Amino acid sequence: MRQNPSFAMTDVAELRRVIAANPWATLVGGDGEGLTASHYAVLLDPERDDLTVIGHVGRPDDRVLGLGDRELLLVFQGPHGYVSPGWYGDVASVPTWNYVAVHLAGVPEILSTEENLRVLEGLVDHFERDLPQPRGMWAPPNEESFVRRLEAGTVGFRLTPTRVTAKRKLSQNKPDDVIENVILELSADGAHANPALAAEMRRAHEARLAARATAGLE
To answer: What InterPro entries does the record point to (predicted)?
Structure first.
């Protein structure tokens, strides 16, 4: 992803928020045959406060991704959607697509069997915890032999990125009144209604307004 300084995201807390809210990641790697993109749930490492992530792939995706042998790219896609030129007012303009995305790249560490089991257990617990009757990975009728057979068909990894590219393109290059109108249009009923994108725009816009106000007081 080509970076644009006007749209760059650099705050680690914000990057962690986007990753945590959008765990369904695209993993891009390769072998001698070329590139492969796979899709898996990837979570922030609960034992770290940086951008280290943990996950797993099913065999033989580990081989076609070159897992542990070469650089792996992880793409976390946040809210995104169409923005009509009609929302800008009576000015010359063209459509665009607003979006938030975080790219992490590095050579992942391959986890041991027991570490991978903990990652898999944590992954299940992460998504089960809000259900009225959460069912853990080790809960009956799952027996230990069943769980360990499943684990054997996966490869767990931990990735601490050596390259990070994050972009928040949310109409920051437009006047405040235009931004407010785009948020309004995305929040309303219509063909391109997108409450999640509207909320992301609102968050970013209010942060800019607050920073602008603080700078004005200095």
So the answer is: Split_barrel_FMN-bd, TR_PAI2-type
